[in-house]
Request: fold
Amino acid sequence: MPSSPDLGLYPVTIEEAIQTVITARRQYHLLHTQVQHLSDAWARQHAVLLEEAALHRQTVQQVEATLRALAIARYQSTGSKTIAPGVRVRELTRLTYDPQEALTWALAHQMALLLDVKAFEQLARVTPLPFVTRTVEPQATLSPCLPEERPATPSL
Reply:
């Protein structure tokens, strides 16, 4: 049963916290490298099996596509949605329309309106709007490689 890493007492200072992060990252990278080497070795050892599985997956996709096409053809000729045990046809309704006409209709009827949040927020960042409040929240970022940290060199 895997054990969780022992982090000891929580760090009290920034310097202690940095050292704790460096230690945790080194342990993770060491284990991750070991797992990656084992995974690569397994893939090399079972390359034939993996290739055979990929070919069979492709065959399954092809024969399923053929069965779907035959089912649609049967449905179109008979109108029956139940083709065979485990094979049914369902009808999907697709809508085709001019987005500009749909927007004009939605505005005229005050229905089906949805704010494009991404576009609005981009606009609100550069345009003062009386109903938008700006707040600044600090967010700490950590460098992927702290000054005292060097990438762990795995021993093979």
